[in-house]
Amino acid sequence: MVSENIIIRKSTFDDCVLFTKWEQQDYIKEFLTINKERTYEEVVREFILRELDKTNEQFTIIFKNKKPIGRVYLSKISRESDSLDLTRIYIGEKEYLGKGYGKEAMLLLLDYCFNTLNMERVTLDHYEGNPAGKLYLDLGFKYEGIMRNAAKKDNKYYDLHLMSMLRDEYKEIMLNEVKNN
Predict the structure, then answer these.
(1) Prediction pTM value
(2) Could you tell me the residue ranges of all domains in the chain?
(3) What is the pLDDT along the chain (181 residues), one digit of tens a residue?
(4) How distant, in Å, are the alpha carbons of 35, 150, 155 from that of 120?
(5) Contacts of 64 (CB under 8 A, 6+ apart)
């Protein structure tokens, strides 16, 4: 997947070092279900288990200068219901935050989900107060409700706000995007 500024490629085992570094940063952990004491061994174990499960796909976001800057994890990929969950996406390199690369990555992922994988439905969720919630709304995701105590981090439960986008909604958004450009 390629856009103006970023490339999204399949993650490799070597990326686990970067994932560990990023996932130990407070600005990443704040809005994700990642415990305070995230170790390299945990990241590796999680990476390997996800790779073995064909309902998951893992990607690394690369800035065009070849610098890895973020991570994506798709889960619950169902060919029966043509749906998947965008479980984790973040920009891990702090100097790349707030520059629109998260939105650029989301647009690439939505294209991949709806046009390459031919999904009917893409879901995601977020913590209360996560600034990405506004981005998801701006992209066309719709709120479905609150999943109460759906996430556990550091032995505390958190509500998650569930959002989704359907294929027809995506097509309409892309059509409007073309008209406006």
Answers:
(1) 0.92
(2) 6-180
(3) 999 999 999 999 999 999 999 999 988 888 888 877 889 999 999 999 999 999 999 999 999 878 999 999 999 999 999 999 999 999 999 999 999 999 999 999 999 999 999 999 999 999 988 888 899 999 999 999 999 999 998 889 999 999 999 999 999 988 877 777 6
(4) 32, 24, 35
(5) 4, 5, 6, 7
- Alpha-carbon distance of 112 to 48, in angstroms, equals 23
Q: At what angle do helices 101-111 and 132-139 cross, to 10 degrees?
A: 40
Query: What's the chain's Rg over C-alpha atoms?
Result: 16
CATH architecture of 6-180: 3-Layer(aba) Sandwich (3.40)
